[in-house]
């Protein structure tokens, strides 16, 4: 029909407005900030997944507030590397997996892909078990039924991606807000020693060997390999920046979003530890399982605290499963150049979780050890990210400065040191108290 025009959808309108801002159009500060928010919000879900629930509950119940410094440290590490990941995508227009395939030797690329797929399975293990535990507790159904329901809900949310990037960003953003609200309520309900919180945040201490395992699990649950791959790709489909001036503007918006989103995620993680320390450490330090924590909260803090905890777990399991699927697709396409249907990806990466449930393995212990696996895998994308963002032939004038490069290396060394300590401990070398 002559004169007929298709009305742009939400994502297209958002992209048009972002382009107008980059070209100099002035909008209100709040409106401008909301336009450019999205990638870091999605990535932040990786820092609030069910693996965090498992490690944070164990940290708070067994060691009170003393491991809060680990959460704060892990959050700071996450901010740096998520900012570098976003910068890589904004400047190059490619994601970390694609650039690794382009610039690294083929055997190394294949090895990175295999390790990244293992990390994806460990990630899905945490996410599906979290969702299954939540639904099982809420509805009184089996773990298998909970996993199936989580898979269906996840797939339904992923279908919103057909309408562009914005609807999915808004859905994930709503989940982030819900999780944050739940833990704000928990902090109001729980009797907290704020002096203990302050000391635990600023005074580093590892009481024994088990504290090392949990500390490494916290790092593995906070700084996530798939989030490093994902963030670089999320910036690709939003708005083009054809010149360096626009790229600098995009980087400023991106860095602000990373700071805000990852600070919120860090505070949520700290709130998890604080709640567990307040509720369980004095008299119930043996609480180490999500199910036990849920059932114990009612007599200790009341039914409202237990209900809020369950809502946050469900929101975490569903949203992180969505984000994990997105990351898995991006990793496969980036490293080997092809995609598989989302439903097939779900089936493949769900397999370990199904095996765990079928074998009757303790779900919470599995969650903790899945985070340790992620922490051991993490140095690979971290090193690749540091190397690529330092190269002028890749980044041009946006290559990392000497100061940023040194800071990134120092952060990577910290994580590698934690991993070495964990491996020595697993080998039977007891070197802490």
Keywords:
mainly alpha
Report on the structure:
Helix content is 79%, strand content 0%. The chain is mostly helical and 433 residues long. It has a single domain (27-426), classed as Amino acid/polyamine transporter I, CATH 1.20.1740. The mean pLDDT is 83.
What layout of secondary structure does this protein have?
Elements: H1 10-22, H2 29-36, H3 39-45, H4 50-63, H5 68-92, H6 96-103, H7 106-139, H8 143-158, H9 165-189, H10 194-202, H11 209-222, H12 225-234, H13 244-281, H14 290-301, H15 303-336, H16 342-359, H17 363-377, H18 379-390, H19 392-395, H20 402-426
Helix pairs in contact: 3-9, 3-12, 3-13, 4-11, 4-13, 4-17, 5-10, 5-11, 5-12, 5-13, 5-18, 6-15, 7-8, 7-15, 7-16, 7-17, 8-15, 8-16, 9-13, 9-15, 11-17, 11-20, 12-15, 14-15, 18-20
**CATH fold group:** Amino acid/polyamine transporter I
Strand content: under 5%
Domain count, please report it: 1
- The topology string of helices and strands comes to HHHHHHHHHHHHHHHHHHHH
From the 3D coordinates, which CATH architecture would you assign? Answer: Up-down Bundle
DSSP helix fraction: over 70%
The biggest sheet amounts to: none
CATH class category label: Mainly Alpha
Shape: globular
Amino- and carboxy-terminal Cα gap? 79 Å
The helix/strand class is mainly alpha
Rounded to an integer in angstroms, the radius of gyration calculated over CA atoms is 21 Å
The chain-level mean pLDDT equals 83
Number of strands: 0
């Amino acid at each position: 029909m002559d004169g007929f025009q298709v009305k742009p959808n939400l994502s297209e309108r958002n992209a048009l407005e972002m382009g107008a801002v980059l070209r100099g159009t002035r909008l209100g500060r709040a409106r401008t900030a909301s336009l450019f928010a999205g990638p870091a919000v999605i990535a932040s879900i990786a820092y609030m997944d069910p693996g965090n629930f498992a490690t944070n509950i164990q940290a708070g119940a067994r060691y009170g507030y003393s491991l809060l410094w680990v959460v704060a440290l892990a959050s700071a590490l996450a901010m740096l590397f998520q900012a570098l990941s976003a910068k890589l995508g904004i400047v190059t227009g490619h994601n970390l997996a694609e650039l690794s395939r382009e610039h690294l030797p083929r055997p190394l690329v294949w090895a990175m892909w295999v390790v990244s797929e293992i990390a994806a399975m460990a990630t899905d293990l945490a996410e599906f078990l979290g969702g299954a535990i939540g639904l099982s507790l809420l509805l009184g159904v089996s773990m298998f039924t909970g996993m199936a329901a989580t898979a269906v809900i996840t797939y339904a949310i992923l279908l919103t991606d057909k309408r562009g990037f914005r609807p999915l960003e808004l859905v994930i953003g709503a989940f982030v807000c819900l999780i944050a609200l739940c833990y704000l309520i928990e902090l109001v309900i729980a009797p907290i020693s704020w002096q203990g919180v302050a000391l635990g945040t600023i005074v580093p201490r590892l009481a024994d060997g088990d504290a090392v395992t949990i500390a490494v699990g916290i790092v593995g649950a906070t700084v996530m390999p798939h989030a490093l791959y994902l963030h670089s790709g999320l910036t690709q489909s939003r708005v083009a920046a054809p010149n360096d001036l626009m790229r600098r503007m995009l980087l400023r918006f991106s860095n602000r979003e990373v700071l805000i989103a990852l600070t919120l995620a860090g505070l949520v993680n700290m709130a998890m530890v604080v709640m567990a320390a307040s509720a369980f450490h004095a008299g119930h330090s043996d609480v180490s399982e999500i199910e036990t924590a849920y059932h114990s909260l009612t007599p200790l803090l009341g039914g409202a605290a237990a209900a809020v905890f369950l809502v946050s777990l469900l929101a975490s399991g569903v949203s992180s499963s969505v984000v994990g699927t997105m990351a898995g697709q991006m990793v496969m396409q980036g490293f080997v150049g092809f995609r598989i249907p989302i439903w097939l990806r779900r089936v493949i990466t769900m397999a370990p979780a199904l095996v765990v449930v079928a074998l009757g393995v303790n779900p919470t212990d599995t969650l903790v050890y899945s985070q340790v696996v992620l922490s051991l895998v993490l140095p690979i994308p971290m090193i690749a990210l540091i190397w690529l963002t330092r190269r002028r032939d890749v980044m041009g004038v946006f290559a990392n400065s000497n100061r940023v490069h040194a800071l990134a290396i120092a952060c990577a060394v910290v994580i590698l040191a934690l991993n070495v300590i964990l491996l020595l401990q697993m080998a039977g070398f007891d070197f802490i108290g």
